[in-house]
Amino acid sequence: xxxxxxxxxxxxxxxxxxxxxxxxxxxxxxxxxxxxxxxxxxxxxxxxxxxxxxxxxxxxxxxxxxxxxxxxxxxxxxxxxxxxxxxxxxxxxxxxxxxxxxxxxxxxxxxxxxxxxxxxxxxxxxxxxxxxxxxxxxxxxxxxxxxxxxxxxxxxxxxxxxxxxxxxxxxxxxxxxxxxxxxxxxxxxxxxxxxxxxxxxxxxxxxxxxxxxxxxxxxxxxxxxxxxxxxxxxxxxxxxxxxxxxxxxxxxxxxxxxxxxxxxxxxxxxxxxxxxxxxxxxxxxxxxxxxxxxxxxxxxxxxxxxxxxxxxxxxxxxxxxxxxxxxxxxxx
Length: 332
Fold this sequence. Notes:
Elements: H1 3-15, H2 17-28, H3 38-50, E1 54-59, H4 62-65, E2 82-88, E3 98-103, E4 123-125, E5 128-130, H5 134-153, E6 162-167, H6 175-183, E7 189-191, E8 206-215, H7 230-248, E9 267-274, E10 284-293, H8 299-315, E11 326-331
Parallel strand pairs: 3-6, 3-7
Antiparallel strand pairs: 1-2, 2-6, 4-5, 8-10, 8-11, 9-10
């Protein structure tokens, strides 16, 4: 590609920037948390159709993908879990085909009183747009779409098929993208414009979600010494997981693509529940954890290491663990 052509394309992108910002703002106003993506997907399908793309909109069927490599156990209800793909069909088939993939689902909003404005009322301030899901990753979806718009505005067409994918179920599992593969979408390359400092990432971490379930011995607080506090029992287990996290991040353990990253694998205790009454020694506690793994790291080996870590910590005579309790690990 000549320098003149590159300049022409970049000018076309710049000329549509205000329209792209407006589009992103409208898209960000859809509250597309997991299970509620339908309105946003209707918006995407309508915009793809208006541009002349061949639009495929379908509901993901778990039975269609559950046998495939990369499938993750389903969390929640998949009723009305909608994927949308818009396809540019090449007339010449001379180039390399491409998938432009982005996810429409966003994470929960958290406490509303911590937001300056409602989370699904996007706004711009000092060159930044704010709103739940604006960066992760509706901005990427908008960038994909308006890149194609820019080419079209100056008379260019991709020389091979391009599949624009707006998928659900990225924040939990990745099953939305898997459903596109099951649907038959293939290409020579794929670009996923996640917010990674506008840099190309050639390798990506995986994620294990698991829940640790603790069962204690309930007694009245007057006899607390004879019971087993399931909530307090969680404390040494979390501490042990933190030690495991640091070990996995040692230079000798790092994946080559992540050798320059200080702490690539992050563990997060994202949710904890337990107990029924302030004056009762709690008989139960469960906490949910997200742990990253390296590209190519065997997931079953990682699970075994997690379970060994927890079982070892549970077996030690720790003051936070009062007498006996049972531990169970469940994976998502």
